[in-house]
Amino acid sequence: MTVHYGGVINIITLIYFFFTTILAIWLVYRQGLGHNYPWVWLTILSLCRLVQVSIDLAATAMYPPETVADSSLQTGVAILTEIGLTPLFMSTASLLNATKRPKGRRMQWILILLHVPLVVSLILIVAGGIDPHSREGPTFAATDTTKAGVSLYCACFVILVWATIVIASRVYLATPAEAKILTTVVLSLPFFLVNVVYMMCFAFESLWGSQRFNVISGSVTLQLCMQVIMEYIIVGLYLALGFELPDKASRFAQRAVALSEMDPDQVTELFIWKLYEIFSGRHYSNKLHPTDMNKPLLRLR
Description:
Blueprint: H1 5-31, H2 37-62, H3 71-83, H4 85-97, H5 100-103, H6 105-113, H7 115-128, H8 144-168, H9 176-203, H10 220-244, H11 248-260, H12 264-279
Helix pairs in contact: 1-2, 1-10, 2-3, 2-4, 3-7, 4-6, 4-7, 4-8, 4-9, 7-8, 8-9, 9-10
InterPro entries: DUF7702
Protein name: DUF7702 domain-containing protein
Pfam families: DUF7702
């Protein structure tokens, strides 16, 4: 059986995300609870892509391009292609949330609340599917509900870029690990932008009558360059970052060494600081750090 151009890309994608699934699961274990959210979302993205390309391969094998495609299978492919942006967004937001000192309390809540429109967009895209009036032809157009979901993606991306700029402007407060996180997120944003633009072009391509950006019947090369390769790069960057960050054993060892070097009074002050930081809504001076025992611990703005 001859494998067409799109089928070759699907097979490569299947192999790629099979290995990223294994690596992401390993990073979930390696980073430990409270630090593994970015890689939990990468695992979900990888599983989503594995299901998507498997369905697409089955659909193209049973219904070659010269025949009328099966609408149910192709609807599933279109939905899975679009909703893959949700775990990618959430993984990026989780990485930004891992930068504690440059981030600040207010930005932390903004990044957490960003999950709300992302979940809404996911629901809209799944509910919207493909326009039923276009299923018998080659168009497979997006519904108004799907357009609303993709538009929410665009709005979330703008918020994500703004949050990255704000946090990156405070990079002088970051630890080396946090600086690596910010560098990785900044490097991923151009590729992320291309992916979002492709999804927007698919959702609103009916405005100019083109079918080149259609995730089902459009240009395979355009999808490869604007969506598939972009995800390859972003996922690769995030996985590489995960292996560069300290694992849970290293973090525990660093804390044990830091505590062993403190005298009892410093340990007590640090404990009181942490309690006050948890239960207080105030912001502290950017120059103050709880482990810097040579400075007053409770100096407020």
